[in-house]
């Protein structure tokens, strides 16, 4: 990865008890089952939460019955050059704004919105987060991107009025074979090019997984789009 700075930015949301989850999803439980302080030989913890908790990846299987599961993720899909695009719209990511960013085939696009500064300040679910509209999702599919990342728990919103009239954003993106990163905090990033490393757990036959996502800034003049 040439011409990169030494600093990596961790955009992963810490997993903890009481953290925000999607409505009606399993609440996070992290329990210290054995403890040196209590006289046990070693510390040993157990975790219990859904695969779409915090920073996570969606595989096509999430909305597509015949789609690939998370263990089938090609490494080069979520490792490589990515571009952070800052969205000014405080309601949704729309086609009109995307057209100004000259999105190219083979790109990995991570969207930084007001979600990063606003939504992660509370452990309560924020209903009016910035989401990708169905029309914008189709625009991204037609542009030929291979991975999409967003800075809250879903690419689509339960409040989106388009949902009643058209395919859900998930169905459009995952149906086209895209892979999704949801639940990042991009507040420490600036628009531009980054080296991306995102690795979900190797959970067999599941539609998603928690993931660790880190970004490394790249000098723009040397960056090349991955195809």
Our Rg estimate from Cα atoms comes to: 18 Å
The total number of structural domains is 1
Mean pLDDT, all residues: 93
CATH architecture title = 3-Layer(bba) Sandwich
Report, as a whole number of angstroms, the end-to-end distance: 15 Å
Percent strand: 25-35%
Q: CATH H level: which superfamily?
A: Putative cyclase
CATH topology (level 3) name: Glucose Oxidase, domain 1
Morphology = globular
Q: What is the count of helical runs? A: 5
Order of helices and strands: EEEEHEEHEHEHEHEEE
Helix content bin:
10-25%
- Biggest pleated sheet: 7 strands, mixed, barrel
Strand segment count: 12
| Derived structural class | alpha/beta
**Which segments are poorly predicted (pLDDT under 50) over 5 or more consecutive residues?**
1-5
CATH class (first level) name: Alpha Beta
How would you describe this structure to a colleague?
The protein has 227 residues and is of the alpha/beta class. It has a single domain (9-15, 50-222), classed as Glucose Oxidase, domain 1 (3-Layer(bba) Sandwich), CATH 3.50.30. Helices cover 13% and strands 26% of the residues. The protein contains five helices and twelve strands. The protein has helices at residues 75-78, 95-98, 115-118, 134-143, 169-175, and strands at residues 9-10, 29-34, 44-48, 56-58, 79-86, 92-93, 108-112, 131-132, 147-149, 179-182, 192-200, 208-217. Strands 4-10-9-7-5-11-12 form a seven-stranded mixed β-barrel. A two-stranded antiparallel sheet has the order 2-3. A hairpin with a 7-residue loop joins strand 11 and strand 12. Helix 4 (134-143) runs parallel beside helix 5. The radius of gyration is 18 Å and the shape is globular. The two termini are 15 Å apart. 38% of the residues are buried. Residues 1-5 have low confidence and may be disordered.
């Amino acid at each position: 990865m040439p011409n990169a700075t030494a600093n990596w930015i961790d955009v992963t949301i810490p997993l903890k008890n009481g953290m925000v989850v999607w409505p009606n999803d399993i609440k996070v439980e992290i329990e210290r089952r054995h403890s040196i302080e209590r006289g046990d030989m070693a510390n040993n913890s157990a975790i219990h939460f859904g695969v779409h908790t915090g920073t996570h990846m969606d595989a096509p299987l999430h909305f597509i019955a015949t789609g690939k599961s998370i263990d089938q993720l090609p490494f080069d899909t979520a490792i490589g050059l990515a571009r952070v695009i800052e969205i000014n719209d405080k309601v949704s990511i729309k086609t009109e704004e995307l057209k100004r960013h000259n999105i190219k085939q083979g790109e990995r696009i991570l969207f930084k919105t007001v979600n990063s500064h606003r939504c992660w300040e509370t452990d309560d679910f924020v209903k009016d987060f910035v989401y990708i509209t169905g029309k914008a999702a189709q625009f991204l599919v037609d542009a030929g991107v291979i991975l999409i990342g967003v800075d809250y728990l879903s690419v689509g919103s339960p409040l989106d009025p388009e949902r009643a009239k058209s395919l859900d954003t998930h169905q459009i993106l995952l149906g086209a074979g895209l892979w999704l990163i949801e639940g990042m905090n991009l507040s420490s990033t600036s628009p531009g090019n980054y080296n991306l490393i995102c690795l979900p757990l190797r959970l067999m036959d599941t539609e998603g997984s928690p993931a660790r996502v880190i970004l490394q800034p790249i000098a723009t003049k040397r960056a090349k789009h991955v195809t």
